[in-house]
Amino acid sequence: MKGMISTLATVWRIASPYFRSEDRWAGRLLLAAVIAIELSIVGLTVLFNSWNADFYNALQDKNWDAFVYQLGYFSVLAAAFILLAVYQLYLNQWLQIRWRRWMTSAYLDHWMAGSNHYRMQLLGDAADNPDQRITEDVKAFIEATLNIGLQLLNSLVTLFSFMIILWGLSAAAPLHLFGMDHSIPGYLLWAALIYAIIGTAFTHLIGRALIALNFQQQRYEADFRFSLVRVRENSEQIALLAGETAERDRLLMRFGNVISNWMAIMSRQKKLTFFTAGYSQAAVVFPFIMVSPAYFAGAVQLGGLMQTANAFGQVQGALSIFVTLYRSLADWRAVIERLDGFDRSVASAQALAVTPPVVTVTPGDGAAIALKDLALQLPNGTPLVNATDLTIATGDKVLVNGPSGSGKSTLFRAMAGIWPFGSGTVSVPKDAKVMMLPQRPYFPIAPLGAAVAYPAEPGAYDSAKVAELIAAVGLPALATRIEEEAHWNRMLSLGEQQRLGIARAILLAPDFLFLDEATASLDEAAEAAVYKLLEQRLPDTTLVSIGHRSTLAAFHLRRFSVSRDGDRFWLRDSAAKAAE
């Protein structure tokens, strides 16, 4: 019961925001319509139960007129049932797609906002495979919540509707044993209740392991799919290393997890099916066993027998909803846990950005970027680079160098506001445009012009201007392909990607441009050419570069060097150090 309450509370937390959102009125109206139709279907079921008694009595009495009338009455009820079933499905699916559209947008917002997706990876990616959570799990959650919720509502209303009928039929068809009538108020109702309780208890004992197994199955499936995607995206490196055998072994190892867990699910479902199939078959004849003594004793007619059996079956089915839905409930519970885990991972990433000690990026009133008492760390607490009272003024050209692993790239991440581990303050001029250019730039799958202009909206820049910049950075052949859509990160060499990154920087014209070994794949002559291009096209842009080549010094006026002092690395202005 404690676990059920906790699960329902989680369902409410995940589901309720949609019904308070900007789309709430459409969602509420559709949900109300679906519920109203479900209740109407239960009402029709009650009418069908009454029809059973009249129809079979007409057959027993060989009353032709009553028989024809009951066939006509059945046709009306059946037509109403068909109409309700069709529109319930239609409105249910309409509600599902609106709800899914809102939830998908909300989850994308939470995942992408403020670099949460990046911090979640820094935390160890507690919510593995976010793509699965946002696509498959959101869809499965909405479908299962509606379907299970409606079936539970149907069972509850059916139970109360037919409890009254079954109680009355218990008096009309008293328990007949050993030639005597035994007056037990509502004995048919109690028999259905005991039968359902026994079935529910055994079903849970046999099938409860399916919840954890289904959770693991989805995880293993997603891990295997993700590994296949990684092989596809890194096919060149794998081919160059002749790593196909190693990758195949790794893929088969992950697929082995899928198989072994699936075998465990098969074994558990086989045991569960043995019981539930037997339980369902016994439920067909059990009400007849209970009522047939009264029928053969002449206490009830055939119509009464059929009505009682139908009512007993409805009550028993409503009480046995847990048995009927157990597999669906196990899948649903696993989906709920995955979405809840995703929410908790997002919340942890959000808290990481504001929970002290943390690196704080603040808007400043001056024209320079200022580093104050900055002490960066790895997620495990290992100290990285430190910086105290350093400024990068407007128009500066600064080269940052130092030993590998000292935290130079992490320094750039902290200045961009995405690295929370550490302490200190980074002050950035208010309204300044800051751009970070990594060693491997990112290009979306889009027309080349839009990919270079990213993250600006497609069409934000003139195509001729984009083409001219692509040619200017040394890629004239690509300048004629700006309308071609492709996977540019896969098609182009790293050197070509870095040239396009420089074109992007010139196009977006930031106030502060940080290059993290952004030209390392170019030869020295090509690197000198792109730096000269930056000087010509962005004369007022402050330039900060991480690089190890001595030739870069010619394009920078200042140097920040990282050196070890004790157990820590310190970033210092080389000119200031020389003056000391």
**Which CATH top level class of the largest domain fits?**
Mainly Alpha
Mean pLDDT: 85
- For the record, the CATH architecture of the largest domain stands as Up-down Bundle
Overall shape: elongated
Radius of gyration: 35 Å
CATH structural fold name of the largest domain: ABC transporter transmembrane region fold
Tally of extended strands?
Answer: 15
Specify the biggest β-sheet. Answer: 11 strands, mixed
Protein model, in words:
It is a single chain. The chain is of the alpha/beta class. It has 2 domains: 2-352, ABC transporter type 1, transmembrane domain (ABC transporter transmembrane region fold, Up-down Bundle), CATH 1.20.1560; 359-579, Rossmann fold. Helices cover 64% and strands 13% of the residues. It is built from 20 helices and 15 strands. It has helices spanning 2-15, 24-61, 64-112, 116-122, 130-172, 187-207, 209-233, 235-240, 244-296, 302-319, 321-324, 326-352, 408-416, 448-453, 463-472, 476-479, 488-491, 494-508, 524-537, 574-579, and strands at residues 175-177, 180-182, 359-364, 369-377, 383-387, 390-392, 397-401, 422-429, 434-437, 446-447, 485-486, 512-516, 542-546, 558-565, 568-573. The strands form 3 sheets. Strands 3, 4, 5, 6, 7, 8, 9, 12, 13, 14 and 15 form an 11-stranded mixed sheet that branches. The protein has a two-stranded antiparallel ribbon with strand order 1-2. A two-stranded antiparallel ribbon has the order 10-11. β4 (369-377) and β5 (383-387) form a beta hairpin. α2 runs parallel beside α5 (130-172), α2 (24-61) runs antiparallel to α10 (302-319) and α3 runs antiparallel to α5 (130-172). The N and C termini lie far apart (71 Å). The relative contact order is 0.08.
